[in-house]
Design a protein that fits this description.
His_kinase_dom; 462 residues; Beta-Lactamase; Heat Shock Protein 90; 13 strands; 5-stranded mixed sheet; 8 helices; transmembrane; Helix Hairpins; 3 domains; alpha+beta
Length: 462
């Protein structure tokens, strides 16, 4: 299945919804982890700075200015490469003590806290770091800055942010791949049901939807559809048997009635009586032809395949049928054009195929007005055998092309012409028996009936 079609499936859209929900939950979880770790470390840094400020304030209150300077120098000397930052300056920002060389000029003050960038200094390996500090003005305009290098904290924050981004990306990618795999598996099973359904709609009612034996929702759906198909087939068989039984039961008394009418026709003395009886005989013949056609269609549909297939020269059949109906076309002043490739061979029933060709030619002449044209074509290709009967008659509306293969169905504008609506039903049954295809198309004007049959070399023995 193509990827674009897969993305449009309901299973993939459902998987996409779950992917969004899962990604949202992962994002919330990672956000909480970020807040709980980076936020905790930032609070710890601020608390450390506050504690140092409290300690220095106590030292100042006890020992005075000199004592404060001594404490700052002692702390710097004890941990020269530490993270704590100190700078004690005079009124004109001249350094009195601390491990910073100068007062930060580009400091950003926010809620009493100062964030600034550490320039290259001894102990920081020549790298620029970010510092966070608080500033207090001591008595006499002296300024004290106490802070910490928060470079490691920022590194941890960036690491967590990178982990969140990668985690979200990997989560979305895995969810997308999982959604595609789940959708593909589901789509395959749905496509199997669709393929079988299309074949069943095409007329192969013997097919059934396979199951996997897992008892899941798809197996239950397949079982229900198969039971529904079984029931439909039973109902169709019942209707077909009723019509076939009616035709079979009425054919015998109708034949006797027809024979009696024919005997009465012979013994009738008056011209008027003979005309009426002859009309009744013609009507009886029409009814017998209808019943015979019904029974023949029933036998064809029940048989399913040709009993004794033989090599049939379709070129000869079509030429013979054209010659048979040529006189009828001339009576209606119609032209008959033929393009018949010689020696086109298929396997099948010669009589049935001749009846198919005859029915199509008869329909073309019947539904084409005087002065019209009928064309016959027969060719053989690598794919099979194709023959076509086209006319310039009344044609069939687009919405009724499939219905004309139903028994007794007749197009509205052709109901005034003689016929019983079984000709194309019989043609379709014969073509289906020979594993062929039939197609109706507009000839503009008229109708074009195309039939495809397998050629002899492509037919596998059954």
């Amino acid at each position: 299945m193509k990827l674009l079609g897969l993305l449009r499936t309901s299973s993939f859209q459902l998987a996409l919804v779950y992917m969004v929900l899962f990604a949202t939950s992962v994002f919330i979880l990672l956000g909480f982890i970020y807040w709980a770790t980076a936020g905790y470390m930032a609070d710890q840094t601020d608390e450390t700075i506050e504690a140092e400020i409290v300690g220095l304030a106590e030292q100042y209150s006890r020992q005075g200015l000199n004592g404060l300077i001594s404490v700052i120098r002692e702390r710097v000397a004890r941990d020269p490469n530490g993270k704590s930052l100190y700078l004690f300056t005079a009124r004109d920002y001249i350094k009195l003590a601390g491990n910073l060389d100068e007062w930060p000029e580009s400091a950003q003050v926010q809620d009493g806290w100062v964030n600034f960038q550490l320039d290259e200094q001894v102990g920081w390996e020549g790298k620029e770091h970010i510092a966070r500090a608080r500033i207090f003005v001591v008595q006499g305009g002296l300024r004290l800055l106490v802070g910490r290098d928060v470079h490691d904290l920022l590194v941890v924050k960036r690491l967590i942010e990178r982990a969140i981004n990668w985690g979200m990306g990997i989560t979305l990618a895995l969810a997308l791949v999982g959604g595609i795999m789940m959708s593909r598996s589901t789509a395959k099973r749905i496509e199997v049901i669709n393929q079988i359904s299309r074949k069943i709609m095409a007329g192969n009612l013997a097919l059934r939807i396979p199951g996997r034996g897992t008892g899941d929702d798809f197996d239950q759906l397949a079982e229900n559809l198969n039971q529904m198909l079984d029931r439909i087939v039973q109902l169709m068989d019942g209707i077909r048997h009723v019509s076939d039984n009616i035709a079979h039961d009425l054919r015998t008394p109708l034949t006797r009635l027809r024979n009696q009418l024919e005997s009465a026709l012979i013994s009738a003395e008056k011209e008027e009586d003979r005309d009426q009886i002859a009309t009744a005989v013609a009507e009886a013949d029409q009814l017998l032809a209808t019943f015979n056609a019904l029974l023949r269609i029933a036998r064809l549909e029940t048989g399913g395949k040709v009993a004794k297939p033989e090599a049939v020269n379709l070129s000869h059949l079509m030429s013979d049928a054209a010659e048979l109906y040529e006189a009828l076309a001339e009576d209606k002043n119609q032209t008959m054009e033929m393009n018949i490739q010689p020696d086109v061979i298929t396997l099948g029933d010669k009589d049935l195929l001749f009846q198919v060709i005859s029915n199509l030619i008869d329909n073309a002449i019947k539904y084409t007005p005087e002065g019209g044209s009928v064309s016959l074509q027969l060719i053989e290709t690598k794919e099979g055998v194709f023959f076509q009967v086209a006319d310039s008659g009344i044609g069939i509306p687009e919405g009724e092309k499939e219905k004309v293969f139903q028994r007794f169905y007749r197009v509205a504008k052709s109901r005034s012409l003689p016929g019983n609506g079984l000709g194309l039903s019989l043609v379709a049954a014969v073509i289906a028996m020979h594993k062929g295809e039939i197609n109706l198309a507009d000839a503009e004007p008229g109708l074009k009936v195309s039939v495809k049959l397998p050629k002899a070399s492509l037919i596998k023995p059954s």
